[in-house]
Structure prediction request, 410 residues.
Amino acid sequence: GHHDQGQAGEGPPVALRELAAVERAAGGRVPTAEEAVALLGTPASLLPDLLAAAAASRDRGRGRRMTFSAKVFVPLTNLCRDYCGYCTFRRDPGDPGALTMTPEQVVALARAGERLGAKEALFSLGDRPEALFPDYRQFLRRMGHRTTLDYLRAVSALVVSETSLLPHANPGVMGERDLSSLREVNVSMGIMLETTSERLLGPGLAHDRAPDKVPARRLRTIALAGKLSIPFTTGILIGIGETLAERVEALLAIRDLHERYGHIQEVIVQNFRRKPGIPMRDHPEPAMDDLLRTAAVARLLLGPDMNIQVPPNLSDADFARLPDAGINDWGGVSPLTPDHINPERPWPGLAALRRATERAGLELRERLAVYPEYAARSEFVHEALRPRVRGLVDTDGLVRGDLERWRTWN
Prediction:
C-alpha cells in the first residue's frame, strides 16, 4: 500500500515513529503526548490516514453533522491593556477606529441581528482597558460602572430584556465574582487559552507586553468557570511561535480541565494570519496541512464527544477541507456583522458553508451559543435564561426548523 518506504529518489522514507502513531490512532487509541507530537509532524503521504482516524472519531461521538451559530458580533470596546503581536482588533484611545459602544448602540445592533435571524450576541472586548486609559475610566464612570466587566454585565442584561438574543461573552481573564454575575445574563462564555507556553511572554515574542496572556491566569479563569458550571469555549492559537510539544501541552491542559469539571463545550483551533500593521506582520503563517493536522490531533486527544471548531474565514478558499479533519462546528456565522477580529476575512456565506458541509457528506445544523448537551442540563443554564433556550430548540437541542429560514442567505 502507500505505506511502503518508497524507492530511492522519491524523497525520504516515511518516518516510522509517525507511521506507528498514525496506525495506533486509526485503531481508535488515544495518542500519548509523545505520539500526539509525532502526529503533528505527519508527512503528506500519511495525512489522509490521520484525517480519516480523526473523522471516524468525530462520527462516533458527534455523528455526521456540522453545526454553526447564527450570531451578531458586538465589539463592546476594542481598547485593551494587552499588546499581543498578532492582534488587529485592539486600539489605544485616539487611534483611528478606536471604539467603545454605548448601551443604545449595543441594543440597536442586537435588534438588527435579531431581524435577520441571529440567536447569539457575541460580545468581544479588550482585556481590562480601565487599567491603562483614564479617558476610558471616565466613560465607564459616566455609564455608572467601575469596571469593563460590570459594564458588560449591564449591556448583556439589556440584550436579554430588549431582544430575543442569547449573549455569549468573551472578555478575557475573569475572577469568580465576575464570572458568577455574568453567568446570570450570558448563556455561555469563553476565553481562548491560546497557548500554555510561558516562553512566548519573552521580549519580542507573541505575548510580550500582554499581562493577561500569562497561561496560569487563563487556566485559572477556565477552572473557575468549571466550578460555576458555565458552558465554556476555549481553544488554541497556532503559528505564533509555539513548538509542536507546546501545542500538545495546551490541548492536554484543556482536556484536564474538562475531565475535572465537564464544562468545555467547544475547543477552537485557530490559525495565526499575517496582517499589515501588526508586530508579527512578517511572521510565517501555518500552512493548511498544519491546520488540518492540528485539528485532527485535537480531535484524537480530546475524544469523540468534544465539539471542535476551526473558523472557516481564516482558511480562505481551502475551508472546505476542514471537515475531513474531524471537526464538527463552523463557529458563529453572522448575517450582519463582519468578524471584527479579522475584518479583512469575510465569512463564507451560509450557502458556501452548506455546500462544503454536504460535499463532505455531513449535515449542516444551526445551534445556539450554548451547545445542545449543555442546553438541556439545568445546572449549566441560569434559570432566568432557561425558558428562552427551551423555546428555541428541538429534542436534539438544536435550533428548530433552522435551515428553512436561511434559504435566501448566501
Observations:
- The CA atoms of residues 116 and 403 lie 13 Å apart.
- Confidence is low (pLDDT under 50) at residues 1-9.
